């Protein structure tokens, strides 16, 4: 069963580091766009684990980059994540009234404003990366390419489309199809966060790249499996969003497709696989290990 998992120090440090930067980028706007800016800030600054930012920083630190070189990447992945949550909650998607324990953006504002807020956050993420003078232009380009791929057809948007196709359908996906859907929908941005931290450090060693890629894939899929498990077993109020929503919408989740016990088993196998991948890296990977542990033991 899921257990309460205190946030590791590196996650709390990432929260403290990235929040003022998110705030700074969301401070100024033309008078006519104040409502849009307010909605963007609401979706970004009111809660959130900042896991993706923490993964950027942990990977950058592991491979020797100054944290300042990873700031833009951390901000960018948080903006893209917030945009995805705004759009996920819309009536045409998951139609969720709550996010992070408060009203979803389209409820707090209105549907049109929420759509624009998501659009603007996605654009702002790439603007932040492109303008980061801490990094070489070639590194900025690599970061833009990686985040774009993780966000679009070959990432979140593609995975969301597969999810919508199966939602409410009497046809169940195979386990392989379910894994592919979630590697795109959820895993792609988590994996990109880790690899963007590596990019900030200029990591090029092929063997290490292979190990960190295996770790990233394990963490991304384990995160989604734990999300699915929590939607079934979480204590009411812990999730910050309506519990049991997946079953209500007849979504294709791991407990729905393989059963709850098998979902726990798969989560643990992924955890062990991720830890084993890190053990092959002869560097201090403690923060990356702590974040993987947090992903599979968290209760929200």
Write the layout of secondary structure elements.
Layout lengths: L8 H17 L8 H12 L5 H12 L8 H18 L9 E2 L2 E2 L1 H4 L2 H20 L6 H15 L4 H11 L8 H26 L5 H28 L11 H4 L5 H5 L1 H20 L6 H12 L3
Antiparallel strand pairs: 1-2
Helix pairs in contact: 1-3, 1-4, 2-6, 3-4, 3-9, 3-14, 4-6, 4-9, 7-9, 8-9, 9-10, 10-13, 10-14, 13-14
The total of beta strands comes to 2
CATH architecture annotation name: Orthogonal Bundle
Task: Give the count of helical stretches.
Answer: 14
Strand order of the largest sheet: 1-2
Overall structural domain count:
1
How many whole angstroms does the radius of gyration measure? Answer: 18 Å
Strand content: under 5%
Provide structural commentary.
There is one protein chain. The chain is mostly helical. It has one domain: Farnesyl Diphosphate Synthase. It has helices at residues 9-25, 34-45, 51-62, 71-88, 105-108, 111-130, 137-151, 156-166, 175-200, 206-233, 245-248, 254-258, 260-279, 286-297; strands at 98-99, 102-103. The chain has a two-stranded antiparallel sheet. Helix 1 packs across helix 3, helix 7 runs antiparallel to helix 9 (175-200) and helix 10 runs parallel beside helix 14 (286-297). The longest helix has 28 residues, at 206-233. It starts with 8 loop residues before the first helix and ends with a helix.
At a glance:
By secondary structure, the protein is mainly alpha-helical. About 70% of the residues lie in helices and about 0% in strands. It has a two-stranded antiparallel ribbon.
Give the key terms:
300 residues, two-stranded antiparallel sheet, 14 helices
């Amino acid at each position: 069963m899921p257990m309460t998992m205190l946030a590791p120090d590196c996650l709390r440090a990432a929260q403290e580091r990235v929040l003022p930067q998110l705030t700074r980028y969301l401070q100024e706007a033309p008078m006519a766009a104040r409502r849009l800016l307010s909605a963007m800030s609401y979706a970004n600054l009111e809660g959130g684990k900042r896991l993706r930012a923490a993964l950027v920083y942990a990977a950058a630190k592991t491979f020797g980059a100054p944290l300042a070189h990873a700031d833009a990447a951390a901000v960018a992945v948080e903006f893209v994540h917030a945009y995805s949550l705004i759009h996920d909650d819309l009536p045409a998607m998951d139609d969720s009234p709550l996010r992070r324990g408060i009203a979803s953006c389209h409820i707090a504002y209105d549907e049109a404003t929420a759509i624009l807020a998501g659009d603007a956050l996605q654009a702002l993420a790439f603007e932040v990366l492109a303008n980061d003078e801490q990094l070489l232009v070639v590194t900025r380009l690599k970061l833009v390419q990686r985040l774009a791929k993780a966000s679009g057809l070959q990432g979140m948007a593609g995975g969301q489309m597969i999810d919508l196709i199966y939602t409410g359908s009497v046809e169940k996906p195979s386990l392989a199809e379910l894994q592919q859907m979630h590697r795109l929908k959820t895993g792609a941005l988590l994996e990109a966060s880790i690899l963007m931290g590596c990019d900030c450090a200029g990591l090029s060693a092929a063997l290490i790249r292979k190990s960190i890629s295996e770790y990233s894939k394990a963490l991304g899929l384990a995160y989604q499996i734990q999300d699915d498990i929590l939607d079934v077993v979480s204590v009411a109020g812990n999730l910050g969003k309506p519990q049991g929503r997946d079953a209500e919408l007849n979504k294709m989740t791991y407990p729905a497709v393989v059963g709850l016990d098998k979902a726990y088993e798969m989560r643990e196998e992924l955890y062990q696989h991720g830890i084993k991948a890190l053990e092959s890296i002869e560097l201090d990977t403690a923060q990356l290990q702590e974040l993987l542990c947090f992903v599979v033991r968290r209760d929200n």
